[in-house]
Amino acid sequence: MEDAVREFGISYPVGQDNNFQTWRAWSNRVWPAFYLLDRDGRIVLLREGEGYAREMEGAIQALLGLSTSRPVGRPGDDLDLSRIRSPEIYFGAQHLTPQDRAQSPRRGEAAYAFTGDGPRLNQYQLDGSWNREEEALVLRSERGGLRLRFSASKQHLVAAATRGGRLRVSVDGSAAEEIEVGRPTLYTLHDGTAYGEHLLVVEAEMPGLSLFSATFG
Questions:
Q1: What is the per-residue pLDDT across 38-56, written as a single tens digit (0 to 9) for each?
Q2: 92 CB neighbour count, 10 Å cutoff
C-alpha cells in the first residue's frame, strides 16, 4: 500500500481494511461501492459499481449548499458500460466460481487441464496445479494457464506474483504479448476497442502467482 501511495503521488488519507471489519460493519456487498454521508453521519446516497461520478458530485455539491446550475463533473467521468456483457469474476473460494464445471472445480489444491475449445461465455478453465484459497487462486506447479471467455472491449486482472515474472497473454489466437506482474494490483491484459466476445489465454511460469479477480471495460 505504501509503495502505491508513493507511486501515484496520493496526498490524502488512505484507509486499509485488511480484515474486512469496515466491509462487514457497513454490510457492504460489492467493490467498488460509494457511500455519501451528511454532517450527521447518515447515508444519503449509496451506489454500487461504476458509472455514478456525476451523480455523486452533484449530491456532494447539494449537501455543501453550492449552486447546482454549474456543470457537474467532466467529460468521460461516467463511461458507457452498457455494451459490457461480462460481470466481475472472483477466483477465490469466498464466491461462487464460474470455472467450467467439466473441470470439477473445488477448494484446496487440484490439478486441471484445458479441455475442448475453451469455456463458455463468462466462464474460465485452468491448466496446471492451483490452490483455491479464500481470496485467490494460487499457482503451485511450475507452469499454469487460464482460458477465459468474456464479452467486452477490455479485460483487467487483479493479480500478484511473489517473485515477479511475466505472463504470456493472447486474445482470439493473436500473437502472445508479455505482461509484467509483481505487487498486488490491477493489470490490463487486453485493451481493445471492439466490444464483443473474446477468448483470453494466459500462460505463466511463476509458482506463487495469485489470481484474485477479473474485471471488464
A1: 999 999 999 988 778 888 8
A2: 18
| Domains of the chain, start order | 2-63 (no CATH), 89-216 (2.60.120.260)
pLDDT in tens, 74-98: 665 666 678 899 999 999 999 999 9
Total-model pTM: 0.78
Dihedral pair phi/psi, residue 139, rounded to 5°: -75, 125
What distances in angstroms separate CA 130 from CA 22, 33, 107, 164, one per listed residue? 30, 30, 10, 17
Place of cell 463468462: 122
Distance CA 213, CA 217 (A): 14
**Hey, what's the cell of 133?**
484459497
Under 8 Å between Cβ of 80 and 94: no
What is the dihedral angle through the alpha carbons of 201, 206, 212, 217, rounded to the nearest 10 degrees?
Answer: -40
For strand 33-37 and strand 137-139, is the pairing parallel, antiparallel, or unpaired?
unpaired
Beta bridge partners of 156: 188, 215
